[in-house]
Every structure is written in structure tokens, then in C-alpha cells.
Amino acid sequence: MNIDGAKSALVQVGAELYHRGWVPATSGNFSVRLESGDLAITASGKHKGRLQPEDILQVDGNGEPRGSAPARPSAETALHVQLYRREPEVQAVLHTHSVGATVASNRTSATLDFEGLEILKAFTGIASHRSAISIPIFPNDQDMAALSAAVDDHMARHGTGVAYLIKGHGLYTWGQTMADCQRHLEALEYLFEYDRLSRTLGTAEP
Ligand SMILES: [Zn+2]
């Protein structure tokens, strides 16, 4: 994808995710990998439902801005860079702050685990409902270098997985295309709502 394609893709994604309530109040950030190896990422502090092409910035593989754009890249750029570095196949990353993801992130367990659900087939590489996914929950940290190092260390030991949560904060997920990434996000929101409702109704397994 070139920078113009990336800009239109991220503007469109922002409008969709905002209207689903997953990136309220300028929260969240999105990126794609460009064919040059650079990244295109949303600028810091922009309303995600009303993104303009100039709100999408080109940064190098270390997250440093190209050129002299007046806007700054997202404060969480280091977390995007970590994923693109670790996984050459990752082409898109979405970070959202939905209520469902944030409630799920506040569980006291270290991971949120799901198995035996048909929706799991939405994740790339999963072909049967007999599969399981484990979503790690990391403590929130304003030090992005420390947080990205914690994420990278976890992935080195347990595999990259499909997503992670940051406690009291939100969700990161990724994919080999933007379509894959959006499908993962929808499936994850389904799982968070499934988990919440199962607990509310008392039908969750202990
Ligand atoms: Zn965030």
C-alpha cells in the first residue's frame, strides 16, 4: 500500500470504528505498513470519526516522522512499531478504547481466554471452533518504551497471538490486511460482550 492508499483506508476505518463507539473522544490509533517499509499512522489527538488525509502521518520503521508535518504521530507509535518489527506479515494494527474492551481489561486474571466458540474462526489461522485463544492483559503504563518492551517479552515467550489488552485502557489487534484486522476487532468485541453477558447471567464457567 502507498501513502495515499493508506490515508484513505485509515480515514474510512476511523469513521467506521467511531460510529461503532470503539474510539470515542479522540482515543485510539491506527496504522498500516507501507510498501516502502515505512508506516502510516494516525496523528496524536485527532477525532477518529472525522479524520482528514493530513491527519495520517508517514513514519519510518522506528516511528520517527518523515518530513516536517506540524502534527505529531500517536503517542502510542512505539506499540505499533513493536508489532511490525516482530511480525513481518503484519500489515495493519488497530488500537481501540471501547467500553467492552476496557471492562474486559479490568479482569484480575493475567489473560482472557476463550474456547469452543464458532466466532473464533474469524481469526486468521483458526479453522475450527475447537480452538482457543488467550488474550494477555498488560498493566497500563505511560512509558511507551517500557510497555512495548513488556509486550515484546511476552510475545517472545508465548507467541504473538491475535490481540492484547491494556488494563483500564483498551485493545490492540493486528492482521495481514486491514480487512483481517477489522474482522479480528469485530470478533474481539463479540467475545468481550459474550464474556460480560455470560458473567451477568451466571452462565460463565468458573
Ligand atoms: Zn490508547
How much of the sequence lies in strands comes to: 15-25%
Note the total helix count.
5
Q: CATH-wise, what's the superfamily?
A: Class II aldolase/adducin N-terminal domain
Q: Say what the CATH topology is.
A: L-fuculose-1-phosphate Aldolase
The SSE string, one letter per element, is: HEEEHEHEEHEEH
The strand count comes to 8
Chain-averaged pLDDT:
94
Structural class: alpha+beta
Unique bound compounds: zinc ion
The domain count comes to 1
- What is the strand arrangement across the widest sheet? 3-2-1-4-8-7-6-5
Short précis:
By secondary structure, this protein is α+β, with helices and mostly antiparallel strands. The chain has helices spanning 3-19, 77-86, 99-105, 144-158, 178-201, and strands spanning 29-33, 39-42, 56-59, 92-96, 111-115, 132-138, 163-166, 170-175. The chain starts with a helix and ends in a 5-residue tail after the last helix.
